[in-house]
Prior knowledge:
4 helices, single chain, alpha+beta, six-stranded mixed β-sheet, globular
Amino acid sequence: MLDKLVIVKRDKFNVIPSLEQMDLNGDYTVVTKCRAGFPVVSTVKAATPYEAFRRYKTDAIMNISFNNPRVKHAFTMYARVGKKVWASEELLRDITVGDINDGGVMHKTALYDHKQYQAVNAKTWADKAFVMN
């Protein structure tokens, strides 16, 4: 059974519903912003959305989509525009406080919220940010 998410409601943060028992091992399309400021599209193989997320500088990621070969459709797992963030339940289960706070601009997005960390009893950067520790 999947860990239950604990989400403190806040503006500019939206949770994308779970894909319910779908095998998420496969190809992910990741859109990042390069140093010059324009988007770069990559395709990576990963077992989970979090594995795809961790392969890039988190502050450069603009979008992560899972490419489902069965239905020939891409499912958005993560998207960020400025401070606004959309993230799937599958990704949020694995994100740590360190992923959000470690340099870059993630701590300036809607992912960062001290009340969120308190709600899940997070004490260190290795603690999960959206499931009870």
